[in-house]
Amino acid sequence: MGTWVTRARVTPSRRAMSAWLATLPVSSWRFHSLALRRALNTTRGKALHAIMQYALWVRRTIEQDPNSKERINNGFRDEALRKVADVLERHLNEEKAVCMWAVYGQWFPWLVMLDSGWAQSHKAEMFPQGKKREDLKRWQAAWNAYVLYCPMYDNVFRLLTDEYLLAVKRLGDSTKERVEPTDPEAKLADHLMVAYWRGLAPREGALLRLFYEKAPVTLRRHVFTTVGQSLRNAKEAVPGDMKGRLQELVEWRAATITSGTPDVEELTSFGWWFVSGPLDRDWVLPMLKQVLRLTHKIEPDHLVLDRLAEVARETPRDAVECLGMMVRSIGSERISPASREAIKVVLSSGITHGDEETRDATKVVINAFGECGGWDDLADLLKRGSCGAL
């Protein structure tokens, strides 16, 4: 199911590491991982990166050895990697520069791949949760580098559960109207959703429950956007258990949110789910109605309108009902010609339908558009239905 489901289940191969390094979003360093940027511009930081690249090169040579399985299981105890562990441990014990912890955070999944036992035993040093200010800075440097530049690997997630919980606890209040994909908080949300739909972070668990208690509405809306876009870009069928968990998430959030409160913004991105394709229509269409009753708007509305035009060919009453709850948010000035055409398709299907209740519901929606102004061209539809004029 896109990159989130079919990839990144276990720690990466050294080939994946090379590909990942080539795609690091350098432009976001200045905003969210200043520590990592500083490390990349210091001699010791470059040396620590080089040590990790050397370790992966050694791992490649070990994989070619006839006794590769045994040597891989030895991890840093292998003679060829022992000095790597010595250098890493020395920096953890003697290093003063906070930026160096960003290097450990960025490379943490690959440290797990090289020697999971070593990574677990030194996790508290790489992600220090002490109360001292220096510990907080080091933890933040390591965490930001990790969450920004590493995919969510199942075994790494299990190892860093305490760090994920601390990151959720430290979620700050945000008044931003938009969450950037390169924000550490957005990446944290992405990781949690991957963990949720893979069954690693249950809905009833402390991690997800606390996230929805602490996260601002902009971040919760980001979750619906990102998951919906991933569903839409899925290149393979969504497994039934994952689909079930995703549907439970939406139902839970919709049942939690009260109409007329700012929290309804969280659900406005459900439109991405509606247009995605993998979800069953018998579930997604009634869910869209439920969401619209709470929000009266949906994003991305142009794609939702296109999809409703398709729905109208089979069940015009459903399409008309959804469109009627979107009238006020659609307006008239910013609507594209393609979206106007999709609206006409829905209304035309409803006004000419054999069911009288459907025709009556369509008249109400047409008149609602007329009250908004800029929709005089819909008068012809009323005439076709012999319902008078706008």
The number of E-state strands comes to: 0
Q: Whole-number radius of gyration?
A: 26 Å
Poorly predicted parts: 1-7, 17-31
Distance between the amino and carboxyl termini: 47 Å
Largest sheet: none
Q: Provide mean pLDDT, rounded.
A: 86
Helix fraction, binned, reads 55-70%
Going by helix content, strand content and strand pairing, the class is mainly alpha
SSE sequence, one letter per element? HHHHHHHHHHHHHHHHHHHHHHHHH
Could you say which overall geometry the principal axes of the C-alpha atoms support?
Answer: elongated
Count of helices?
A: 25
Percent of residues in beta strands = under 5%
List the helices and strands and how they pair.
Blueprint: H1 2-6, H2 14-22, H3 29-32, H4 34-40, H5 43-63, H6 68-74, H7 82-94, H8 100-114, H9 116-121, H10 123-126, H11 133-149, H12 154-159, H13 161-169, H14 184-197, H15 206-214, H16 217-232, H17 240-256, H18 271-274, H19 281-295, H20 301-312, H21 316-324, H22 327-330, H23 337-351, H24 356-372, H25 379-384
Short overview:
The chain is mainly alpha-helical. 67% of the residues lie in helices and 0% in strands. Among the domains are: 1-159, no CATH class; 300-390.
